[in-house]
Model the fold of this input.
Amino acid sequence: LQFSIEAPGYTQQEGLAFLKQADPYIDIVQVRTSDVNENHPISYNLKKNPFLDLAEMVKKSGIHAKVASVGGYQDPLLSDQAISVGKMDLAAMARAWISNPEYANLVTAGREDDIVPCLRCNKCHGRGKNDILASICSVNPEIGLEHHMKEMISLPDHQKKVAIIGGGPAGMCCALNLQKRGHTPVIFESSDSLGGAIKHAEYADFKWTLKEYKDFLIYQVHKNGIEVRLNTKADPQSIQQEGFDAVVTALGAHPVLPKIPGLLEAHPYFYDMVFKEPSSLGHHVIIIGGGEVGVEMGIYLSRMGHETTVLEMRDMLAADAAMVHYWKMVRNAWQNEDNFHGITNAAVTEVKDHAVCYLDAQQQMHELPYDSIAVAAGMASYLKEALAFQQAAPQFFLIGDCLKPQTIQQAVRMAYGIAAQI
Done:
């Protein structure tokens, strides 16, 4: 029996009364929330198992049926603890097995640290507004491609030494997959730490799943003894001199500054500075670009005490987010912030000294005052810099944002696919 607490039409007490009457006829009751979206929690819910208290309430009601709880159960230690103290009898999992098909084997082998964190992106339920309804996974590149594995993967003919230029998620994933195939990857990272474009996950509390994934990749790189050269800006000549068999460029991308009159003079901020140093921005912040990144910036700044207004050209905010379950919960997050304001169908035409000018859907001009401006208008790849390594080794590959700005899911799958060709 699936049982939704406080579903429309009855209260918790009425629901518990029904369960007691139904108890003789059921073996397992699966406790869910009244909203189908909430049963698939995303990172804006800061609790790993946000609905455990509902299961505990049913468990304490005295029914004999086994009580199962849904929502975010991936950590085996937390699940085991909840069962051992009597809060539930079963942890109902789905996404944990999509991101980790070998979940049971990892747990029984005592390899919990090898369980890949789920990003809770809900792309396993479908992707963006205009995508086909197909199941994919941001951290498991094989999902959706299982029927192609035999033709995609071939055994390497000999061990190769591979230079990976860039220590972001694509570079780290490629290195890990190369090592599994018997190769020797070396990661060159120009900064003092691994992480690349997802380092900003350190700052916003609602980015905790992405932070866990970043930390997991870094941990796996070091655990597996992959050589990492930090504070090292690789160049084609040095790579060639070391005699690498292949070079994989994962240089990433940089934010795009739209060609809007006056914008450059306003000294706009980009996502990395917004998350790292929110106090450097003024009180009233206008964000140009209302995709998922722009909305995240707006929510974060609102929670930091800023008054934020997000301007988006399209007819909806966060239009690039996964539509099934995920988008509505992101919408709930921004609607719960009193300081967050979103304006759609807004085409920015000019930035003045203290006002941003935009046209609405009726071609009416508006001016919004600001203290600071942030921009989330897309990314541009470091393609030219990456192509400089073409002759540095017998084999050359591009992955991640330096080929084309992309999502974590796309970068991870590309890293996997390229590693399979080496």
Remarks:
- The first strand starts at residue 2 and ends at 4.
